Amino acid sequence: MLAKLNGVQGTVEVEAMVDKEGHITAAKAIRGNTLLTGAAQDAVLQWRYQPAAIDGQPVDAKVEITVHFRGAQ
């Protein structure tokens, strides 16, 4: 919230685990502005993905996600 109030902008890289159903089961910020890392992790945990597949079968997968924060236009 502090970052939003002060118009902080930037990019945060998040490492996340996607399960066989496409849900994010864990998210950890690995790079970026510390004022934005919590918001990035919270956002990613709400997202849903197409699960990875091997031989047509869904599998758990680790992904890196880049979250961009921009100030109000």
How is this structure best described in words?
By secondary structure, this protein is α+β, with helices and mostly antiparallel strands. The chain has one domain (2-69): TolA/TonB C-terminal domain, CATH 3.30.2420.10. Helices cover 23% and strands 45% of the residues. It contains two helices and five strands, in the order αββαβββ. The strands form two sheets. Strands 2-1-5 form a three-stranded antiparallel β-sheet, covered by helices on one side. A two-stranded antiparallel ribbon has the order 3-4. A hairpin with a 5-residue loop joins β1 (10-18) and β2 (24-32). The mean pLDDT is 92.
Q: What fraction, in percent, of the residue positions are helical?
A: 10-25%
Count the E strands. 5
Give the tally of structural domains.
Answer: 1
CATH fold field value: TolA/TonB C-terminal domain
Please provide the ordered H/E string of secondary-structure elements: HEEHEEE
The coarse silhouette is elongated
Q: Please, what is the CATH homologous superfamily?
A: TonB
Structural class: alpha+beta
Q: Radius of gyration, Cα only, in angstroms?
A: 14 Å
- At CATH level 2, the architecture is 2-Layer Sandwich
CATH class annotation: Alpha Beta
Percent of sequence in beta strands: over 45%
Instruction: List unreliable stretches of 5+ residues.
Output: none
Spatial strand sequence of the major β-sheet? 2-1-5
| End-to-end distance | 18 Å
Largest sheet: 3 strands, antiparallel
